[in-house]
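[step 3/7] inverse_fold.run input=structure_tokens len=109
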């Protein structure tokens, strides 16, 4: 009952803007600070999802479905990026036994 009344009342667009900004800032901070390649991929995914959330919120707010279709394609590309990125990390880990981004310079060869 309480959840139904919350959803009927609606959430303002400012809430989604603030939430998306916080998620994006956490992702950027993770990319800049962390050195683990798996954490970097997760932070990039977090930034993509923050942008997707904001696009869906504005699409719903404006009453147009164009951005929601675009978000679907972004999610497909993000899934492919995660698959390729994780496979590269697994192969690099097999060779150098580390996921530290600084050590990947050894792969130039």
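[step 3/7] decode complete -> sequence:
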């Amino acid at each position: 009952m309480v959840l139904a009344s919350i959803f009927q009342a609606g959430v303002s667009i400012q809430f989604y803007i603030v939430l998306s900004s916080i998620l994006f800032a956490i992702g950027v901070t993770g990319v800049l600070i962390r050195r683990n390649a798996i954490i970097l991929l997760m932070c990039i995914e977090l930034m993509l999802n923050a942008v997707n959330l904001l696009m869906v919120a504005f699409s719903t707010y404006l009453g147009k479905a164009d951005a929601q279709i675009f978000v679907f394609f972004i999610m497909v590309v993000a899934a492919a990026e995660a698959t390729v990125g994780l496979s590269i990390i697994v192969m690099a880990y097999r060779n150098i036994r580390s996921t530290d981004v600084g050590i990947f310079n050894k792969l130039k060869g």
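[step 4/7] annotate
Residues 76 and 82 are 10 Å apart (CA to CA).
Confidence is low (pLDDT under 50) at residues 1-7.
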